[in-house]
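Exercise 7b. Backbone tokens:
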């Protein structure tokens, strides 16, 4: 199993990307399992908390499988599930979130970041074309100037900058992220669903 599911509270399902030996790099196999797990847990759990095992959220695409862009269809499905869900999906970014890992964190509704968290999208260095939806989504999260800088230079933003620019909600611990997810779960399901729909429109 590449996705570990735990329940620190009745209202929260924690999905942990459990591939610490590879810095939680995202393979097609892992993303297919993540999509299936999300779909199942979104039926039962009032809210979802997504994080990574060890000291990284995700180092991005699994480069050992060849073309890093090959994971994009599976990644796109995961992002669509998160964005289309009617329940809150919180990310606890416990360390670096690079490339596809940053996109995964960015798809979540709320990001709580550890002090060691950082985000980078080094597509220019890897020669990966940037789809318009990535550029637009990143611009909406960090601002147009910062999005262009991140995409063209690959330079990261740290946890403090992520909070300052509004990409992350707060710097904190895993327990803080669980509390955020619990608060979301305690809200009106219909209102949470309407908020998510409003941000999609």
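Sequence design result:
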């Amino acid at each position: 199993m590449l996705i570990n599911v735990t329940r620190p509270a009745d209202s929260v399902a924690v999905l942990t990307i459990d591939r610490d030996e590879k810095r939680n790099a995202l393979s097609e196999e892992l993303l297919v399992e993540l999509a299936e797990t999300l779909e199942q847990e979104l039926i039962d759990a009032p809210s979802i908390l997504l994080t990574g095992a060890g000291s990284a959220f995700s180092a991005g695409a699994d480069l050992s499988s060849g073309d890093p862009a090959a994971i994009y269809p599976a990644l796109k499905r995961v992002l669509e599930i998160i964005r289309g869900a009617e329940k809150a999906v919180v990310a606890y970014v416990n360390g670096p979130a690079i490339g596809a890992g940053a996109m995964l964190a960015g798809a979540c509704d709320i990001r709580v970041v550890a002090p060691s968290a950082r985000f980078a999208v080094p597509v220019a260095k890897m020669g990966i074309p940037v789809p318009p939806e990535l550029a637009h989504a990143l611009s909406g999260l960090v601002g147009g100037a910062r999005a262009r800088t991140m995409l063209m230079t690959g330079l990261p933003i740290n946890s403090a900058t992520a909070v300052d620019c509004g990409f992350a909600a707060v710097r904190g611990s895993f327990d803080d992220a669980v509390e955020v997810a619990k608060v979301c779960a305690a809200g009106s399901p219909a209102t949470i669903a309407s908020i998510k729909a409003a941000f999609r429109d």
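Instructor comment: The mean pLDDT is 95. DSSP finds nine helices and nine strands in the chain.
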